[in-house]
Amino acid sequence: MTSATSATSQVTSAEGARERAREDSEAAFSAAFEAAVAADERIEPRDWMPDAYRSSLVRQIAQHAHSEIIGMQPEANWITRAPSLRRKAILMAKVQDEAGHGLYLYGAAETLGTGRDELLDKLHSGRQKYSSIFNYPTLTWADVGAIGWLVDGAAITNQVPLCRCSYGPYARAMVRICKEESFHQRQGYELLLVLSRGTEAQHAMAQDAVDRWWWPSLMMFGPPDDESAHSAQSMAWKIKRHSNDELRQRFVDICVPQAEALGLTLPDPDLRWNEDRGHYDFGEIDWSEFRAVLKGNGPCNEQRITQRRRAHEEGAWVREAAAAYAAKHQHAPRSDRKEAVTS
Ligand code: FAQ
């Protein structure tokens, strides 16, 4: 063997050893990840995780964050026309909470290495989704009640199990979000109860709102299980704990007695208790409507995204001012910084 051949074979075997070592450590990390998930332990930002786990979390968390901030629009539409100061203060606090939920969620996505700018860019360019529910209009004051009762109610049903999501930062964000959503749900229920027990016109307004929001609320849980692209893998990773159809059924079972207590009817002639299943049967969801809304053809898709882009552009000066302030104080001498804090 010439010395050149021997040097080449040494390099090749060193590369091979490195490659084998890399594969061994990857396999060890992967086994540790699978074991942690199986043991119901939390995966934290610095832990090794499969690329697909990371990207699936970013996809779901981003869609959730976008839903929170786009979801501010339908109700904000009624802040200036709330029927009393009390109702106005409550509604402002609720809409503000939703902005806060967006912040926690964008923060959770950041722990996975994806910044808010990138996610907002994807939302504004239509590359990421937000919940279908926010593409419906709020036509009357009663819609604020229907959103609280049904939309926040569906959100809680879906999100309480997410408090046990395998990814730590998302699970912890969900604990606080769910507590706040419970307030939101109760204010919506109380608002509808007052309307339902009010004048004939108020009762009719509450019923009309429930008629319009019921079916879109059922669509919030996503496509039926046999068409759900991500459920099986997300459940195996314990990101999701229940399937779309299981949670939808849970929501229907919760709502039927609540509707009775409200004195309102749910717009589904097929809704009836099934003794054998121990659940309410309900009618067929119009999945063609769901698909149309997801494609951008819902009643308000265009309006919602246009308003979001405008708000982002008009807020540019706030972001620039905040960045300039942060940079100034980061580079200021320590004594100036102290003065800035105490003055
Ligand atoms: N709208 O394979 P799956 C709120 C998409 S609550 C739009 O079943 P996955 C609070 C899905 O992304 C609302 N898109 O997906 C509030 C996927 O598309 P992709 C937000 C939907 O992830 C209240 C494709 O269809 N809550 O904002 C919808 O396993 C009042 C295939 O679906 C959350 O986001 C939909 N309804 O299950 C704020 C909760 N459904 O990503 C203001 C967290 C499905 O491949 C006022 N998210 N898609 O392009 C989740 O639990 C899940 O992501 C599901 C979907 C259950 C939404």
TrEMBL record:
<dbReference type="Pfam" id="PF05138">
    <property type="entry name" value="PaaA_PaaC"/>
</dbReference>
<dbReference type="InterPro" id="IPR052703">
    <property type="entry name" value="Aromatic_CoA_ox/epox"/>
</dbReference>
<dbReference type="InterPro" id="IPR011881">
    <property type="entry name" value="PaaA"/>
</dbReference>
<feature type="compositionally biased region" description="Low complexity">
    <location>
        <begin position="1"/>
        <end position="15"/>
    </location>
</feature>
<dbReference type="InterPro" id="IPR009078">
    <property type="entry name" value="Ferritin-like_SF"/>
</dbReference>
<feature type="compositionally biased region" description="Basic and acidic residues">
    <location>
        <begin position="333"/>
        <end position="343"/>
    </location>
</feature>
<feature type="region of interest" description="Disordered">
    <location>
        <begin position="1"/>
        <end position="25"/>
    </location>
</feature>
<feature type="compositionally biased region" description="Basic and acidic residues">
    <location>
        <begin position="16"/>
        <end position="25"/>
    </location>
</feature>
<protein>
    <submittedName>
        <fullName>1,2-phenylacetyl-CoA epoxidase subunit A</fullName>
    </submittedName>
</protein>
<dbReference type="InterPro" id="IPR007814">
    <property type="entry name" value="PaaA_PaaC"/>
</dbReference>
<feature type="region of interest" description="Disordered">
    <location>
        <begin position="324"/>
        <end position="343"/>
    </location>
</feature>
<dbReference type="InterPro" id="IPR012347">
    <property type="entry name" value="Ferritin-like"/>
</dbReference>
